[in-house]
Amino acid sequence: QQQTGTRTNGANASAEGKLNEKLDAQHLDLDENDQSSWAKLTRLVALNVGTIFAPRTMLIMLRILKAITCVFLALTIISNLMYLMYIIFFVTNEVTAKTGGSRDIILRFYGLILLGLAIAAELDLASVMKYFLGLKSFI
Fold first, then answer.
1. Residue 50: band (very low, low, confident or very high) from pLDDT cuts 50, 70, 90
2. What are phi and psi of 50, to 5 degrees?
3. Mind listing the pLDDT tens digit for each residue in 53-104?
4. Which of 21, 48, 75, 125 could join 120 in a cystine, given CB atoms 3.0 to 4.6 angstroms apart?
């Protein structure tokens, strides 16, 4: 029984090693007989990406992209909060009216709520993903 477990673990390790070595671009969701220009372009792009990037490299790039997205969403929240604090506390009513008045302030508060939802969707929070599943594709 111990030998079987050892073989299984060895097989899993070799399968993981093969998975991370090279991306197999032969398995595309295209009909093999489809020779249209879009199908050829899809095959060409998949082949080039498969020869340049390993699956592990692509996962790392996607994680970096996710981190950059979260950072820019957080920076947008900070800039909106700074603008709102400046408009609400330091500016006279005349300047507030010229910058859009209460309408602009309300829109920025709605923007902050949507930014919070966007960060929650980007971080895959279960409570947000349950109710706003389609939001992930827009970020």
1. confident
2. -65, -30
3. 888 888 899 999 999 999 999 999 999 999 888 888 888 888 877 877 788 8
4. 125
Nearest to 119 by CA among 52, 53, 74: 74
Query: CB burial class (10 A; 0-12, 13-18, 19+) of residue 23?
Result: buried
Q: Hey, what are 23's tokens?
A: 């991306």
For the chain, what percent of residues have pLDDT higher than 70? 81
59-73 residues labelled b (16+ CB within 10 A) or e (exposed): eeeeeeeeeeeeeeb
Q: How far is residue 25's CA from residue 15's CA, in Å, rounded to a whole number?
A: 17
Secondary structure of the chain as H, E, C letters: CHHHHHHHHHHHHHHHHHHHHCCCCCCCCCCCCCCCHHHHHHHHHHHHHHHHCCHHHHHHHHHHHHHHHHHHHHHHHHHHHHHHHHHHHHCCHHHHHHCCHHHHHHHHHHHHHHHHHHHHHHCCCHHHHHHCHHHHHHC
Residue corresponding to tokens 């506390």: 89
